[in-house]
Amino acid sequence: MMEGAIKQFIAAHDKNFIFGIGNYSAALAERLDAIGLDFDGFLSTSKTESDRFTQLPLERFMDHPVFTVDDHEFIMTGRGATGCILALPEKYQPSAEGLLIEHGFKNFLRLDDEYMIENVRRSNELTPALVEEFRQSIPFQTVEHKPWREVLTVVSAASAI
């Protein structure tokens, strides 16, 4: 049922974008490819604002260009409507939609968590190629770990028998 809605949504718009860069959007991109549907790229939040919805400021993701909501004038040039599929957990979709409306986007398709989790499972969460893409895209960061504390384990004589 959800895939029928996705097909109708994509057919109704001249340009289509997936909002989000993460497990949901990667799995959705793989699913769209598997069912023969194309899209124009990914959308992420502004590079100048704190990122509430996506994790990585990338130029390309899953062989598609990545734009930010700040690129809205470029994205919406030309004729026809622009559609945006919200590939985020349902709890974030209203806020994401509000952000997109602020930047002039009008046409959205919300996907339910059940459908998206099914797609994530179908693509085995992250394919080896996607893991490599993430690894190449993120600058190496060292993580400072807290030192281990001594742990004392006491075993009573009664429990040792």
Helix and strand layout, with pairings?
Elements: H1 2-11, E1 15-19, H2 23-34, E2 41-44, E3 60-61, E4 64-68, H3 72-75, E5 82-86, H4 93-102, E6 107-110, H5 113-122, H6 128-137, H7 157-160
Parallel strand pairs: 1-2, 1-5, 2-4, 5-6
Antiparallel strand pairs: 3-4
Helix pairs in contact: 2-5
Structure described in brief:
The chain has 161 residues and is an alpha/beta fold. It has helices spanning 2-11, 23-34, 72-75, 93-102, 113-122, 128-137, 157-160; strands spanning 15-19, 41-44, 60-61, 64-68, 82-86, 107-110.
Uncertain spans, ≥5 residues at pLDDT below 50? Answer: 138-149
Main sheet strand line-up: 3-4-2-1-5-6
Average pLDDT across residues? 77
CATH topology: Rossmann fold
- Which CATH first-tier class would you pick? Alpha Beta
Spatial gap, N to C terminus: 61 Å
Question: Which band does the percent of strand residues land in?
Answer: 15-25%
Radius of gyration: 21 Å
Total domains: 1
General shape: globular
Describe the structure in your own words.
This protein has a single domain (2-137), classed as Rossmann fold (3-Layer(aba) Sandwich), CATH 3.40.50.20. It has seven helices and six strands; from the N terminus they run αβαβββαβαβααα. The chain has helices at 2-11, 23-34, 72-75, 93-102, 113-122, 128-137, 157-160; strands at residues 15-19, 41-44, 60-61, 64-68, 82-86, 107-110. It has a six-stranded mixed sheet, with helices on both faces. It is globular, with a radius of gyration of 21 Å. Residues 138-149 have low confidence and may be disordered.
